[in-house]
Amino acid sequence: MSSHFLVCPFEETLIQRLRGRSIVPVIKSIEDVPKVVSTVDEAGAHLHCLRICTKAPLSTLPFKEEWKHIPIALYTSGLGRFPEFISRLPVFRQLNLRVYLSTDSDENYTSIRILSSLGIETAVLFGREKIDWERLNDLVSYAFFAQGPHAGIAPFHYLFTRYDKNGRTDFGAVYFDDPRTYLHLDKEGKVALSREDLEAGHFLFEDVGMIEQVEKHEKYQDLLERWREVFLRGFGCASCPGWRICLGKFSRTPLDGQGCRGFFTEMMDKVEKFQEINRQRTEQKILWQP
Amino acid sequence: MPNVLLTQSCVRSCPYCFAKKHMSESSPDDVMSWENLIYLADFFQAAGERRFPILGGEPSLHPHFNDMIVYLLERNFDIHVFTSGVMADRVMDEAASLFNHLPFERLSFICNLNDPTKTRTPLAELESIKRFLKIFGGRTVPGFNIYRKDFELEFLFHYINEFGMHRNIRLGLAHPIVNKKNLFISLQDIDTVIDRLFSYIPMFERLRVKPGLDCGFPMCRFKDDQLAWLFRFTGAKYDFGCGPVVDIGPDMTVWPCFPLSSFQKRSVFEFNTLKEIYDFYGDIHEKIKVEAGGIFPECDSCVFREERLCKGGCVAHSLAHFQDEVRLRFPEVYL
């Protein structure tokens, strides 16, 4: 059986067909959370994570304490009114929640830091419109070297835990965008390798039942080797030292080269430094307990 | 405990203002960023500090004043806000709804009040202060800076009763600002000021209001019976000190205290711990005291200073002794 997690829209008929699969239903309203959980449960599927994409700010979202066992990836527009957010913080802290905030809004650089410092896991969503690489660089420094205790910031902590000094490290999985881990379904059960392919209507299979053959499929293999293209072109990312962790994610966007080179190169240095610091920490001895 | 400046602009222009030089050299648009505030919260937390004193300018002019207090409270700091009491209605109303349920220990204000009969105060300013005290009087300690010999305290007693303010008065002595003109109490007037302060003993006792002395009062200028009353009535232990208070600006510059705001300014980022900052400025204070034991010539041989029961008055006075001479002393003691 394929071990891929399946990212899919919340369609009850589709979910019923995914028995035994680990799935990531995508919903737009937090009101649907209980319904999704019960449907997934009834279908005999495993809820890997619930992805909620909403324009409402975090402070207005009525999360409930009893949802603390539900893994949630929340894509939201921002923090919202601060006092309201703080009043809901005790609940947020209990949840299995990661908050994704986009760099398209200037305020979100600060919001990510505030959330992290208050113990909420966050993820930087690289915006399509603009990225302030300098502020992002500052955020990496905070994520790795802040004196105070704070929650992890993805993809920085993800890179830290998986960084390979002699190879490539892909952080696409943070955004459910790594065909080795995630496949994307449309509401009819057609299978795409990435969200980009899904949106463009480029499907690998017409039915989710064929998913077992994915690893043998030519397009799948091609996608895994797509990173080589950059070297065949021989310019831009091909000479970038930071490519080993960025893998050209910005090469096909208007942001190509506008600061990403310096950012990812410096981030590699910081990841290595942080790994070095963590190596120096003595391993915690865990004694037996009576 | 360092004071953190959220803003560098103020709505008042007190004639003794000890922050005047710093403000005049800073941009009023320069306000504390969230990034810097979080850095400082981490920095204080790593030093084991639980208190977070907030200063300005007028700190409530910061566009995120209330949000920042909410944040720091959530980080488990106890907050002390030094304010003029002149606040925008919107900020004040929001603060009332957010904070008035908190115990005094978690959030308190220290409101610096001027005697309206001695210090020119616009009517609108007075009304704003009264409105502030009406809402927050119960969590506000009155502060008063003595900058003239003929000061009066009656108005403070009146405010304390009218608004239910804390029954402690934080009394400061206006000190000279190095390299800037301000009104301050000269060395020869300190005795007069202290005698005048103690002429209020009957009122302090009758209204159960306790005086608290801020830094820079020299112990030798108090008579024994005055000291005895002070210790007996307040039960407090006074150190007659002058040490680095440490103020941190919105741009993360750090200096020992406002009268020395142009003296040995550094950046917080140059230090790894809070202790390093205190050690750095403490060392400079010690060097100044090697050059001039205190503000009076007799400080050099004073047994109380040697026993560290008194620090010899405000170091800003001492610095003024040798700033214009040929530079032969420790280089750190010059501006």
What does this structure look like?
The complex is a heterodimer of chains A (290) and B (335). By secondary structure, chain A is α/β, with parallel strands linked by helices. Chain A has a domain of 158 residues. Chain A has 11 helices and 10 strands. In chain A, strands 1, 2, 3, 4, 5, 6, 7, 8, 9 and 10 form a 10-stranded mixed sheet that branches. The longest helix of chain A is centred in the C-terminal third of the chain and has 21 residues. The termini of chain A are far apart. The model of chain A has no long low-confidence stretch (mean pLDDT 91). Chain B has a single domain, classed as Alpha-Beta Barrel (TIM Barrel), CATH 3.20.20.70. In chain B, 36% of the residues lie in helices and 13% in strands. Chain B contains 12 helices and 10 strands. Chain B has a 10-stranded mixed sheet with strand order 7-6-5-4-3-2-1-8-9-10. In chain B, strand 5, helix 6 and strand 6 form a beta-alpha-beta unit. The longest helix of chain B is centred in the last third of the chain and has 18 residues. The mean pLDDT of chain B is 90. Classes of the chains: A alpha/beta (290), B alpha/beta (335). The interface between A and B is medium-sized, with 15 and 19 residues.
